[in-house]
Amino acid sequence: MSTPHVSGVIALLRQKNPSLNDSEVKDALYKTAKDLGTTGWDQYYGWGRIDALGAINYISFPTTTTTTTLPLTTTTTLLPNDTTTTTTVSATTTVPTTSTTTTITTTTLPTTTTTTLPVPTTIFSDGFESGLGNWVQDSQRDWFTSSQRRTQGIRSAEVDGNAIDATITTKNSIDLSSKTSATLTYSWFIENNWDSGEYICLDIFANGAWTSSVRCLDGNVDAEQVWNNENVDLSSYLTNDFKIRFRARVSSSSEDGDVDNVIITAA
Predict the structure, then answer these.
(1) Out of 38-47, 82-91, 141-150, 171-180, which region has the weakest mean confidence (pLDDT)?
(2) Exposure class string for 84-94: b at 16+ Cβ within 10 A, else e
(3) pTM strictly above 0.85
(4) Proportion of the chain in helix, strand, coil states, percent, rounded to 5
(5) pLDDT tens profile 126-179
(6) Are 35 and 42 in contact (CB under 8 A)?
(7) Beta strands 163-170 and 243-250, pairing class
(8) How far apart are CA 137 and CA 230, in angstroms?
(9) How many CA atoms lie within 13 A of 188 on its CB side?
(10) Quick one: three-class SS letters along 197-243?
(11) Which of 247, 249, 250 minimizes the C-alpha distance to 215?
């Protein structure tokens, strides 16, 4: 690969000064090369690494000299013996050298910055395998753990009627105030005998107040007899008093609804 580099530099040298001979070209290359290995020439690196800019700056532009011959001026003088003497005057004028500057431009590519985003971690998780110990019920106490159905493990939280907005609420507040993002995921289920006006809803507590019906699973409206998976963005609730509750209204003890695998992640 050295041959095309050397050829290119020689082309630049002759562009700057076309009158350079081979010896002058070699001199410019050898004397400006970056010495590598043993000082001076050696069998591994020769004269070193070629320096294009150094070689170009080493040589000078050609000097242009223009010679102008003035017209002959003839003076005739008649001497007493009638002899004619002719005097010829010539002059040489040197025209100033015209210089050409070769500019080599170096382009610097922009720097690419990589930003590492925080990795979400799980800060709350409950599959109800150990009961309702992470939750507090209202006075109706219509929620319980059941092995009738689940998304994983052997249990889920189940509610049946007669329940009028019966709730389970996280026992302890979750501090999200230092987080930049958070997500709640869970699964819920209602049997196909749930009627219109019967539901399970998700409520969220933050900044000292409840927001009701953030999500709802409604009888005769949403998919029944299947697990429905939910994903809730909590970016609007990043406070130090965060809680959630599930609230159910259902009229008969033969109408079951379930919640399972409640997970909160935050970053």
Answers:
(1) 82-91
(2) eeeeeeeeeee
(3) no
(4) 15, 35, 55
(5) 999 999 999 999 999 999 999 999 999 999 999 998 999 999 999 999 999 999
(6) no
(7) antiparallel
(8) 22
(9) 24
(10) CCEEEEEEEECCEEEEEEEEEECCCCCCCCCEEEEEECHHHCCCCEE
(11) 247
Q: How far apart are CA 228 and CA 99, in angstroms?
A: 82
Residue 91 has pLDDT above 70, yes or no: no
Say what percent of the chain tops pLDDT 70. Answer: 81
Helix (H) or strand (E) holding 171: none
Residue type, position 138, single letter: D
d(CA 245, CA 204) in angstroms, rounded, equals 7
Q: How far apart are alpha carbons 251 and 159 in whole angstroms?
A: 11
Strand, coil or helix: 15 = helix
Contact between 190 and 232 (Cβ < 8 Å): no
Q: Which two tokens stand for residue 219?
A: 């009888």
The yes-or-no verdict on residue 48 having pLDDT over 80 is: no
3-state class of 32 per DSSP? Answer: helix
Query: By the 8 A CB rule, do 219 and 195 touch?
Result: yes
Alpha carbons within 13 angstroms on the beta-carbon side of residue 231 total 0
Q: How far is CA 35 from CA 42, 43, 46, 59, in A?
A: 10, 13, 9, 19
Residues belonging to the chain: 267
